[in-house]
Write a structure and sequence with these properties.
The complex is a heterodimer of chains A (about 160) and B (about 350). Chain A has about 160 residues and is mostly helical. In chain A, about 80% of the residues lie in helices and about 0% in strands. In chain B, the strands form 4 sheets. A 7-stranded mixed beta sheet of chain B has the order 1-2-11-16-15-12-13, sandwiched between helices. Chain B has a 6-stranded mixed beta sheet with strand order 4-3-9-7-5-6, sandwiched between helices. Classes of the chains: A mainly alpha (about 160), B alpha/beta (about 350).
């Protein structure tokens, strides 16, 4: 908690905060990081395998193989989500399964499954991007900022 | 009636003549499986939404309680219930099926004891002869509303608790045999400024302690009065904090006599449970199933149930509000062969 927020608390509340902090089991950060590294690495390894498969067996280049690879990874993630396995893997893997494209697919598939009971339009359609929406918004916005910096940089450098 | 600052003493001793408890598959793997009336192997209960499944559970629990008491639906004067979903739909929809005059309640996970306290107040004042009180929760429906979609891969911290899929109702009567409701203490809102929705036990512990201290103060009874004091859903984290706080308030309870429904309902090695069980269905199914059974077996005579509730909403949490918490206590007593008349 930030210091600014802490100042608003009464002395009794502050005392309780430190008491409850002591009783809280800590998040096992080191273990989580290790798990994330292993799980994320495994997903990338599988992705690399799929890319190589496309390059060797079909007329794909390293660049053009990226699209079908992402599609395959998304498909695997959606199947695992539908079978109810992805959230269990994610509890172990943490950021390892959240950061790759499989995590993005999981956020959309799980929201779509969850809101199926509210119908296709208002339920599935309206809620599918509930979690993924902010990723897209800030992804697009950061891409715009980076592109702007680059353009301005090139113009200044070119002048 | 009113005793002290915030407690009611029920001179006519309303009696819990029967109970009904229904739980889901995960709870059926827990250690209290023998104490529940109906176990479901399917989270959906054959319905097409989790919300409908929760309504169904509550309906079934009411039917079981009415049947066990040898009564008909028409014999019930009032139905007092609540749950965790927006606009307490599970309870209201179950009341639609039950077709009994209904009062919907919301006090988060402490609704189980709020309904029992109010039900006892009605029966004690002879405003009703048969009243059903209860509360329910459904893990997937609650997760959907308060946190993430059930299949979303978010990592839960060790302080997180698992919402119970379960429901428990009690049929209170002015006459009959069973555990009697002797007193109740209505809690105040306590907000210690905690705002982590993954550590509700820590947020609720001071509320439980406040109500326990108030109960002993109002009734002027010794701390050894009860064979068991059970809090609602503090979990491992909150339970330990509440023990420390009680010691600070010089309330000395032996650790065997002080437990938490959230710790009783699951085995420690069940996956994803972490700190323990939570939800309206946690205290209601454990109390109306397990604890009432133990009282009837003669293992416990006097019991104090302190159901705890975290009164947050997904909106208030996102707006960075802290979590106001509450706890309601109800004292039960079982006198063997003691028929109330």
């Amino acid at each position: 908690m930030s210091n600014k927020k802490k100042k608003k608390l009464t002395p009794i509340q502050q005392e309780y905060h430190s008491l409850s902090k002591n009783s809280e089991p800590k998040r096992p950060v080191l273990v989580n990081v290790l798990h994330a590294f292993l799980a994320g690495g495994t997903i990338c390894l599988i992705g690399q395998g799929v890319t190589d498969f496309f390059i060797w067996n079909f007329a794909f280049t390293e660049k053009s193989a990226a699209n079908p690879t992402v599609a395959v990874m998304i498909f695997i993630s959606v199947v695992l989500t539908s079978l109810g396995l992805y959230d269990h893997i994610a509890q172990w893997a943490g950021a390892g399964t959240a950061v790759p494209v499989t995590g993005f697919a999981n956020s959309m598939a799980s929201a779509a499954l969850e809101h199926r009971s509210e119908g296709y339009v208002l339920g599935v359609g309206g809620n599918m991007f509930k979690l993924a929406g902010s990723v897209i918004v800030f992804g697009v916005f950061s891409a715009f900022v980076i592109a702007l910096i680059r353009t301005v940089g090139t113009m200044l450098g070119g002048a | 009636m009113l005793q002290g600052h915030q407690s009611w003493v029920f001179a006519n001793r309303p009696t819990i003549i029967s109970t009904g408890t229904v739980v889901g598959p995960f709870e059926a793997q827990g250690p209290l499986v023998e104490d529940f009336d109906l176990l479901h192997g399917d989270l959906w209960l054959g319905q097409n939404s989790y919300e409908k499944a929760e309504t169904k559970m509550l309906e079934e629990a009411c039917e079981i309680a009415i049947k066990k008491a040898g009564l008909q639906k028409q014999d019930i004067q009032f139905f007092l219930a609540g749950d965790l979903l927006n606009q307490i739909i599970s309870s209201s929809f179950a009341a639609r099926t039950l077709a009994v005059p209904y009062l919907g309640l919301f006090s988060a996970c402490s609704t189980s004891m709020e309904s029992l306290a109010l039900g006892a107040l009605i029966v004690n004042s002879r405003a009703g002869n048969h009243v059903i009180c209860g509360a329910s929760s459904h893990n997937s429906a609650v997760e959907k509303q308060f946190r993430y979609p059930t299949e979303y891969g978010a990592q839960r911290p060790p302080t997180a608790q698992w919402t119970v899929t379960g429901t428990g109702v009690a049929l209170l009567s002015a006459q009959g045999e069973g555990p009697q409701v002797t007193s109740a203490t209505i809690g105040r809102i306590i907000d210690m400024g905690l705002s982590d929705p993954y550590n509700l036990g820590g947020a609720m512990a001071p509320a439980a302690v406040d109500t326990i201290v108030a109960h002993f103060r109002d009734l002027g009874i010794p701390h050894e009065e009860y064979d068991l004091i059970a809090t609602g859903d503090l979990g491992r984290v909150g339970h330990q904090i509440s023990l420390d706080l009680l010691r600070k308030h010089s309330v000395t309870l032996s650790e065997e006599k002080y437990t938490d429904c959230g710790l009783l309902i699951y085995r420690e090695d069940q996956p994803m449970v972490f700190s323990g069980g939570s939800g309206c269905g946690c205290s209601s199914s454990v109390v109306f199933g397990h604890i009432i059974n133990r009282m009837k077996k003669g293992e416990l005579k006097k019991v104090l149930i302190v159901a705890t509730g975290a009164l947050l909403s997904p909106l208030s949490y996102q707006q960075k509000e802290s979590i106001p918490c509450i706890a309601h206590a109800v004292a039960l007593e079982y006198r063997e062969g003691g028929v109330n008349d």
